[in-house]
Each structure stands twice: as C-alpha cells, then as structure tokens.
Amino acid sequence: MTVIPEIRIQAEDFNLDSEVSKLTKNSNDIGAVVTFSGLCRDEKGALAALELEHYPGMAEAEIRKIAKEAIDRFNLTGMIAIHRYGKILPGENIVLVIAASPHRHAAFDGANFLMDFLKTNAPFWKKEHLKNGKEGKWVDARDSDMKAASRWEDIL
Amino acid sequence: MTVTINYFAWLRERTGISTEDVELPEQVSTVAGLIDWLATRGEEFEVFDQHRELIQVAVDQQHQPDHGADLENAREIALFPPMTGG
User: Fold this and answer.
1) Which residues of B touch A52 (CB under 8 A)?
2) pLDDT (0 to 100) of residue B1
3) Which of A61, A131, A135, A138 could form a disulfide with A48 if both were Cys (CB 3.0 to 4.6 A apart)?
4) Range of B33's domain?
5) Does domain A6-155 correspond to CATH entry 3.10.180.10?
6) Are A49 and A136 in contact (CB under 8 A)?
7) Which CATH number is B29's domain given?
8) Mutual angle of helices A143-155 and A104-121, in 10-degree steps
9) Taking CB atoms and an 8 Å cutoff, what residues of chain B touch A59?
C-alpha cells in the first residue's frame, strides 16, 4: 500500500495530540510513533519574535519529496509534517514531524531524516525581531546542518 | 526570454523587490550568467556580486545546486540565501 505523507504549510499553530491521533486512529499496524516539534527560542531573552518567510508551492513540494523518500527508505506506515510561517513568538511551535512505523527504529530514523533534509532543502528563512527594538538579522545557515544531512549517505 | 524572478529573505530586502517579470538578455543562458547580469542592474543589485557563493537558485521550483545549470525554457526563477527553516 502506498503511504501518502500529509504536508501542511500554515500560519496557524498545530495540536500534537490531534495530529498523532489522525495517524493512529484507523490503524492496527503501527507500533511506534515518533514526534519532533521545533519551537522558537528567546535567545536568552533577546528575541521578541521570529519571522518565517517561505517560498509558497516549493516549500510544500520539497518537504513532500523528502517525506516520500523517508517513507520509502524506512518503510514508514505514516508521516505528517507541518511547518508554520509568519511571526512566531518565543515558546511557540515552528515545525512538527510525525513518523509512524511497526517498530521504533524506523520511526526515529524517519523523523530524523525528514528534519535533516528539511533544514537544508525546504525554502524557509528566519529573521530575528529583537526586544531592544533594533533591526534583527537573518539567521545564518549552519554548517552543522549541512553535515547532518550528508551523514545519511554514509549510514545507508 | 521573459521570466518571473522571485527574491527571498535578504535578497528581497536588498533589492527591494519580491517578484518581477524581466526580459533576460540573449547572452544570459545559465544560472551563473543570470547572477552576473543581475549584479550589473544597479547599486541595490551589487549584493549578487558580493555574495555570489552564498546565493542559491531554483528554476521552476527545482533546486539548481550547480551555477552552470541551463536556464532554457525557464519560466520562474527564485534567488535566495541558504535556507534556515525547521
């Protein structure tokens, strides 16, 4: 059976419980569900908000491509990925990834794989808004994120 | 060739443009050629020369990691810095 990932790009928040139950409620073959959520940090009190910019259309398509790859590689039984855009306050959700599989390793790996490639391939950009009212900067991409994505070539 | 160009993040801020339709000069046939040409369009486009190595490009919403990539039949081109989602 082809597993179709659910991918959403939205301004509004999401609810972990209801997203997880969407995957599990009609299934008897899921033995493991891994969820990852990414939240906005306040950077030791300096940050007022993050502004998330994205490339509509391509953002969803890129995440869908990665999710399909994750489903194939790890034989997942379900996957949901939600990424928010717009202004996000410290403590609020930014991203949610849910991977489901019969056994735990595939679900852990699937969620991890999706996040690693989402970081390097999904067209989103973060700008900081500072509490002191000064113009914040665009967040720099990290070399460690590139390394995290490339390690999958060694593992598999 | 007329294409739609989208600029994101600090490329959008520096150029002051989020999207525009432009007629590409005939000699512009690759991603690298496009960046060369954009850099000549005035002060606010100098960023394309200054940060050439950071700039990433998608043609018709497909990543083009190689700046040698061909622009033939391109309809929509996006230019942006490295992505920082998640």
Assistant:
1) 85
2) 87
3) A131
4) 2-80
5) no
6) no
7) 3.10.20.30
8) 140
9) 85
Task: Say which DSSP state B70 is in.
Answer: B
Who among B9, B58, B86 is closest to A38 (CB)? B86
- B86 within a domain of the structure (yes/no): no
- Phi first, then psi, for residue B11 (nearest 5°) are -70, -35
**Residue B75 Cα, gap to closest chain A Cα (Å):** 14
Q: What does the domain layout of chain A look like in residue ranges?
A: 6-155
Domain count, chain B: 1
Over residues B53-66, the pLDDT tens digits come to: 999 999 999 999 99
Q: Residue B70 falls within a domain, yes or no?
A: yes
**B17–chain A nearest CA distance, Å:** 14
Of A57, A122, A127, the CB nearest to B85: A122
ipTM of predicted assembly, 2 dp: 0.96
Helix (H) or strand (E) run with residue A33 in it: strand A32-39
pTM of the model: 0.95
For A52-108, what is each residue's pLDDT tens digit? 999 999 999 999 999 999 999 999 999 999 999 999 999 999 999 999 999 999 999
Within chain B, which residues score under 50 in pLDDT? none
Stated as kind and residue range, the H or E segment containing A83 is strand A78-84
In a domain, residue B47? The reply is yes
